[in-house]
Amino acid sequence: MNNLAIIGAGSMSEALISGIVSSKIIEPTAITVTNRGNVKRLTELQERYGIHYSFNLEKIIPEADVIILAMKPKDVKEAIAQWKDYLSEKTLLISVLAGVSMDSLQRLIGTEVPIARAMPNTSATVGKSATGISFNSFVVDEQKQFVHEMFETVGFVTFVEEEQLDAITGLSGSGPAYIYYLVEAMEKGGLTIGLDRDVANALIIQTLLGAAEMIAKSSKTPLELRKNVTSPGGTTEAGIRILEEFDVQKAFITCIQEATAQSKRMGKALTDDLKLPK
Ligand SMILES: NC(=O)C1=CN([C@@H]2O[C@H](COP(=O)(O)OP(=O)(O)OC[C@H]3O[C@@H](n4cnc5c(N)ncnc54)[C@H](OP(=O)(O)O)[C@@H]3O)[C@@H](O)[C@H]2O)C=CC1
Ligand SMILES: O=C(O)[C@@H]1CCC=N1
């Protein structure tokens, strides 16, 4: 793969650029990013990663071997309309858009092109994304291998049927935000019991890293690991009793279900607009 074009320059786009550039799978000078018109943001990415930016779609689209779609789902219709006429049938499109099906993309483009639909997360920035990927039938082996390698440079990759991507969006696409939310609460809790913010923050980060590594490396289930922390009549038992009273596990389960449902609703809004069968 020689040239990569990235359409959209927001947080997901930067997470991918950061991972790809540091892994050196593609030269920074072979990457061109564009957006709707925010030059300040494009200049920032250019200076930070040594990549190019351009608004010349007539040039960057036909020259690209791979195009990553990284705008919001609500903007995809307008975005594709701007450059679909310059697209070669061999160019691989990689979409990271929540909810948007490959059928919808195909319909918007109007010709049969290879499409990979991926759901990474912003931990790609530090090489720790959890990414689910699906392909349409026009993607050839060499392109599949490239997609695999590219997303592996930014973390863990799993290949799934497209139907599972809404669930992956609800679980791990949005997942970092659930963890940040938990950390916000732990920080606030730390302050109320008299810890300095910096001290609390350092302790929380190490606690999260340690717990994540325990889950990954131990043969024990999370429930067993939790029981190992919980001494009868001790502090953990007292704390967990409060989480149970608030039904925090149910809140997390419902949160993941609702995020998944929202991914489906976002996809349906576009299929309804395009009058595609569900
Ligand atoms: N953020 C996340 O954690 C994750 C996001 N995703 C998916 O990634 C996509 C991007 O999300 P995120 O980075 O958060 O979004 P942002 O809002 O941060 O960025 C969106 C970008 O798209 C650009 N854009 C909008 N319309 C067009 C257009 N017509 N042509 C070119 N560029 C356009 C915007 O440009 P401008 O600023 O000029 O308007 C902006 O650079 C979404 O589809 C989301 O579902 C997937 C996994 C995780
Ligand atoms: O909130 C969103 O819609 C995107 C998709 C997954 C994470 N962020």
TrEMBL record:
Class of enzymatic activity (EC top level): oxidoreductase
Gene3D superfamilies: NAD(P)-binding Rossmann-like Domain (3.40.50.720), ProC C-terminal domain-like (1.10.3730.10)
UniProt cross-references to PROSITE patterns, sorted A to Z: P5CR (PS00521)
Annotated Pfam families: F420_oxidored, P5CR_dimer
Catalyzed reactions per annotation: L-proline + NAD(+) = (S)-1-pyrroline-5-carboxylate + NADH + 2 H(+); L-proline + NADP(+) = (S)-1-pyrroline-5-carboxylate + NADPH + 2 H(+)
Domain Pyrroline-5-carboxylate reductase catalytic N-terminal: 4-99
EC number(s) per entry: 1.5.1.2
Domain Pyrroline-5-carboxylate reductase dimerisation, first and last residues per copy: 162-266
GO molecular-function terms, A-Z: pyrroline-5-carboxylate reductase activity
Keywords carried by this UniProt record: Amino-acid biosynthesis, Cytoplasm, NADP, Oxidoreductase, Proline biosynthesis
SUPFAM superfamilies documented for this protein: 6-phosphogluconate dehydrogenase C-terminal domain-like, NAD(P)-binding Rossmann-fold domains
Subcellular location: Cytoplasm
Domain of life: Bacteria
Pathway given in the UniProt record: Amino-acid biosynthesis; L-proline biosynthesis; L-proline from L-glutamate 5-semialdehyde: step 1/1
Described purpose of this protein according to its UniProt entry: Catalyzes the reduction of 1-pyrroline-5-carboxylate (PCA) to L-proline.
Family recorded in the similarity comment: Belongs to the pyrroline-5-carboxylate reductase family.
Name of the molecule in the record: Pyrroline-5-carboxylate reductase
Organism: Niallia hominis
